[in-house]
Amino acid sequence: MTRWDEVTLGDVATLDTRRHDGSDKPFVGLEHIEPGTGRLLRDVGQSEAESGTFEFDPRHVLFGRLRPYLNKAHLPTFKGHCSTEIFPIRPHAGLDRRYLFHWITKQTTIEAIMATCTGARMPRANMREVLNLRLPLPPLAEQRRIVVMLDDMLAGIAGATENATRSLASAIELFSTFRDSVLQGDAAWPKQPLGNVLKVKHGFAFESRYFTQSGDQVLLTPGNFYEHGGFRHRGMDQKRYLGPTPPDFVLPSGALLVAMTEQAAGLLGSSLIVPEGETYLHNQRLGLVLPLEESSWDSRFFYHLFNTTALRRYLHDGATGTKVRHTSPGRIEAFETGIPPTREEKAGVARRIDAIAKETDALISLQQRRLAALVELKQSLLASAFSGQLTHEPIAA
User: Fold this and answer.
1) How sure is the predictor about 264, in pLDDT bands with cuts at 50, 70 and 90?
2) I need a surface site. Which of 19, 76, 239, 259 has the fewest CB within 10 A?
3) What is the DSSP letter of 51?
4) What's the Cα-to-Cα distance from 50 to each of 19, 45, 47, 116, rounded to whole Å?
5) Mean of the per-residue pLDDT values for the chain?
6) 86 in Cβ contact with 60 (< 8 Å)
């Protein structure tokens, strides 16, 4: 049996911080690297950054030190230069490059790297401390056997992940297409501006000094929105509010909100129904959608309407602002569409869409569970590999 050495990363690899010489080479930024897979998300550009970057070549492993929990690492096959938020790590002669890549993307390694970080909002790994992390080092031939086995098994997991991801995207797209087709309406629905049936009211600019973890009011923000509608408890422990609140800004359960800013890609115009169970407020980045005539109003109908492709595209195309794009109540109220005249008709349309939404949610949940299981399986394989369980040469006791 073979005893594996345990060494520090700094014993067997070097951080290359050679500055880019300004020559025309491909540039890799963090935005180019897909989290968890090591793949480039798109073709890298030529000299997108002119200075302050690091040189790399096919001898290196590129590792993203900013927010390392995203697990952004890449094995380049070309010469280039990268952001200083990415460190080129060059393995020495006794360390296989792919072995290093698999080790540094292992969850327990990522957790150890996170422990070196400074900065709360934008954590950065301390690469000098990362060099002190210890890794198991079998003989080079054994490293390469492990890499071959891992590459083969992880390729299978990657294929299954792609299939599950496509199935997830297809379920969302099919439902979106169905909802769009239903809400295109028929000739009997009068086409009119939304302002004929509703008005949009901005939220209140709550003072941050009153935010607390013990307040009995929950401040809703765009962070509580899913892209295509729906509510999520995101950061609720940080968004409680204890302070003077104008009564008009306390939201009743069942009220309809719309995102007025593009806090995240695709968010502008997304809607949610205020849930029960808490006292909710909304800030100025959200609009409260109010009916002009209660007797013909149905919140679920307008919830779905706000998430149609036509309305979302209309709001996106007319948005203003540079750093954060936003829309206005007037812009929303000017949108023209067919609207069923009675509450009963609106409710019937909403029930039809909700029924398909329920089936779609079940499909989405299934694919999300599959994706989570595949992530767990990948990390289990990596853990087995680096504890000697996949090797032909067991570790001596």
Assistant:
1) low
2) 19
3) S
4) 11, 12, 6, 30
5) 87
6) no
Query: Rounded to an integer, what distance in angstroms lies between the CA atom of residue 100 and that of residue 9?
Result: 9
Asked if the 139-184+345-397 domain carries CATH number 2.60.40, the reply is: no
- At residue 395 the predicted structure's pLDDT band, cuts being 50, 70 and 90, is very low
Tokens 């390694």 locate to 109
Q: Which CATH superfamily is domain 190-339 in?
A: DNA methylase specificity domains (3.90.220.20)
CA angle 85, 146, 394 (to 5 degrees): 125
Q: What percent of the chain has pLDDT over 90?
A: 61
Report which of 348, 329, 232 is spatially closest to residue 289, judged by C-alpha positions: 329
Sign of CA dihedral 159, 162, 164, 167: negative
Going by the DSSP 8-state scheme, the letter that residue 243 receives in this structure is S
Contact 379, 157 (CB under 8 A): no
Beta bridge partners of residue 46, listed in sequence order: 26
Q: Please list the residues that pair with 338 across neighbouring strands.
A: 191
Which residues of the chain are in CATH 3.90.220.20 domains?
5-137, 190-339
Q: What is the mean pLDDT of the segment spanning 103-118?
A: 95
49 contacts 102 by C-beta, under 8 angstroms: no
The pLDDT score that the predictor gives to residue 284 is 85
- 2 secondary structure, DSSP code: B
Sorted by sequence, the CB contacts under 8 Å of residue 243 that are 6+ apart come out as 206, 207, 209, 210, 215
Reported confidence tier of residue 265, pLDDT bands at 50, 70, 90? low
In tens, the pLDDT along 296-352 reads 999 999 999 999 999 989 998 999 887 788 999 999 999 999 999 999 999 999 999
> How far apart, in whole angstroms, are the C-alpha atoms of residue 82 and residue 80?
7
160-172 confidence digits (pLDDT tens): 999 999 999 999 8
Alpha-carbon gap, residue 189 to 209, rounded angstroms: 48
